[in-house]
Amino acid sequence: MSVGFVDEEQDPDVRFVRGAGRYVDDIKLEGMQHLYVVRSPYARARVLSVKGGITGDELKATMESVGEDAGGRSTVSFPVLSASYVSYVGQPVAAVLGGDKYEAADKAEEVDVQYEPLKPVMDPERSLESEPIHPGTESNLVAAAELGKDFELKAPVEVDETLRMERIAPNPMETKGMVASYDGSLLTVYASTQSPFSWREGLAGSLGLKEESVRVVQMDTGGGFGSKGGIYPEYVVAAYAAMKTKRPVKWSESRYENLLATNMGRGVRGRMKVYADRKGKLKGLKADLLVDVGAYPLGGGAWTAKWIASQLVGPYAVPKAYATAKAVLTNKVNMGPYRGAGRPEAAFFMERMMDRIADETGVDAAEVRLRNATTRRTISPLGMEAPPSRRFFMEALRAFKYSSRKKKEKVGLSFFMLIPAAYGGESAKLAVKGGRVKVWMGGSSHGQRHDVFAKKLVSEELGVPQDVIDFQHTDTAAISGGVGSWGSRTAILGGGALVEASRSLKAAAKKELGKGYSPARILEGDYEAEAFFKPKDMLNTLGANLATARLTKEGNAVVEEVLSFYDAGKVLNQFMLESQVTGGVAQGVGEVMYERAVYSEDGQLLTASIADAGVIHATEMPKSVVMTAAHRSTLPHGAKGVGESPTIGVPPAATRALEVLLGRRFTTLPIEPEKLWALDVSDGGRTR
Amino acid sequence: MTQAHHVVVEVNGVKREADVEPRLLLVHFLRENLGLTGSHIGCDTTSCGACTVLLDGKAVKSCTVLAVQADGRKVTTIEGLGADGKLDRVQEGFVAKHGLQCGFCTPGMVISAYALLQENPDPTEEEIKTAISGNICRCTGYESIIESVKHAAKAGRRRKAPSRPSRRRS
Ligand code: FES
Ligand code: FES
Questions:
Q1: Is B108 close to ligand 1, i.e. is its CB under 6 Å away?
Q2: pTM for this one?
Q3: Quick check: A173 and B104 CB within 8 A?
Q4: Which atom of ligand 2 is nearest to the CA of B100?
Q5: Under CATH, domain B89-159 is a member of which superfamily?
Q6: Separation CA B8–CA A220 (nearest Å)
Q7: Which backbone phi and psi does A685 adopt, to 5 degrees?
Q8: Does B155 touch chain A (CB under 8 A)?
Q9: Architecture category of domain A426-533 in CATH
């Protein structure tokens, strides 16, 4: 069932360095047309008329699922093409087809849309007192949650702070895109995706098709970071256009479009109050969170506020905790997952408070954390389960050589817990034929090189050499179900499924071959096995980061080095793990220093190029040192999740290092560039 | 539609001709007209370097050059590196040190690194960073890419040993 675009037998590294990767935009099909989407130039407006192209009057579809734990429908429907009003700059209102990209863009000029602009709601703090952005609704409140029990407390140390993580664009280097083709009964979609199964569900739902009539095939995917898990309106339009014209349709967006109309991450404000004794031991924690979910509360918009609140306590113990959390609408593109998705927000808020307690009490920042770490499994008053943390953090401090580094350098520290998205499990399938083993997983690699650990696990389990194993891109026609690749889940869940599938394949071969069984004989036969792995145990794991900062000659504060110490369980491949972590370190530092989405008051995106969005360059990258603690998990392969750890742990550690260096308190990420400048550079920042 | 221009470009050593619109970008000419999809498009503001190719031996961002500007000139794309089915040493470096994850930035990175090593066979780490500072990688954090370039530089120095013929391309 291979689509023939990708030579799966060739090592991906070799394909990529030759320029022989096969991404969506590389596809050329007979008779293929290009779709160009006409977008709203206003953040909020009534649509008076749309003339030309495919419009919302023709395609009356709404978004039925947007993937990654979409969490059902909301009371507000998200139109595929808006015919009545628009809610963010970049929202699709019409689409046209052309023979190539240039022609399609030319045709878009002929589409005439009349708008009546309205005043947009941009500030989440004012969202609730503003007019509802969706006609017919009562307010801009999407969700409100209350966790734990409210309490009264007097403590020797009481600190409160308002903290923020600004919105940022995921910015995978390959923008979003797809090719759809329709043969009269089957809609085949070639996708740049983290989850072909979410796409199948979403496209079938929006187009009123049976899931069996939709096949989604993953192409080489140039990064996702959360933004390619679910589906977007453009995908539905492109699929519809292919069905309507009975010709293949390609949609591939520009970077500008990607920035305007791709879900953004973060955008959360946390008001935190901690109560502690003079030694820094926590007595209580109160929090109030506000999440800016953008225009349509789908795919996480409804549950993110509660999700962040639930993990605020992190790896610590606190006798009392109480959190309230709200999610509100604004006239911006939807909020969506970005590497970490809620976990970095919780860790940033809590770790900033740990540093505040250290400052208030004069107790060392590491000591404050250790005093609040745990020696047994706990469930926090906010409902989250955590493994014992104290011993691991002592290990981390030794690995960092914390005490000696602290004496010489400006350091920041973070301790955190990673909660992998284990929910729903994951699938894997093996097929032996003609002496080769084909391997699929339900969730799809979009840069993580799952093939490397997949081959290793299957080879170990079956006893066959790695070079007879071909790792396949996910294809909904090849494997019967699956979830997707996000939330630090694929190595643990997909890996678990691979082990289970291998074991059942081996058992079947043993049964058939009896005494004649040997790994080599497996390869002579025809076997298939599929497994859907659902872990029973808690998989939450721990991590720590240490960052150092220094001043450049010009007086700019920069992050110099980031050390990561993560409990990744049994490491499946050290090299790939280090590569993943260092990539995440770049994103974590980017988030502290450069990355941000800025909107004007009238809702225009001001950071509308990849340079303005602040993605880190080679010259800005600090040194990254990656270390692991290999405490086996209870899973069949012993591994733990790690993919999101750096975007969780690096921001608080790096922020603290800069704070110590400059002697200024930082509460908002990214830190404004003008605050990263030291007035006095005579001593290289050493005395601050 | 505006009037078509006839262009003749030597791409990876082969003469290619076409009638193109004046507005056609070189990267689209390579990808769409010639099917050389190794040069990628990652932005629309000349910021990412995914489209980097050699134009008369110099690294350029092919999204910022018009196809008509390449008329009569020589272009080398990622597909043109290496010879006789073998990888070039820069490509080998990226495989050996796994200087990539999703692979999308890779062709541009390899070309930029290739151009650097042509000019400066023994670059320092800072020089490597500067040379690839016009190329964005969102996945790797650059460390493995820098290691890949160092690996390639070392291999180049080894190859320059007197008894061995140089495999450098012109
Ligand atoms: S596509 Fe040419 S620089 Fe980004
Ligand atoms: S490897 Fe993905 S952008 Fe560089």
A1: no
A2: 0.94
A3: yes
A4: 1
A5: [2Fe-2S]-binding domain (1.10.150.120)
A6: 32
A7: 80, 5
A8: no
A9: 2-Layer Sandwich (3.30)
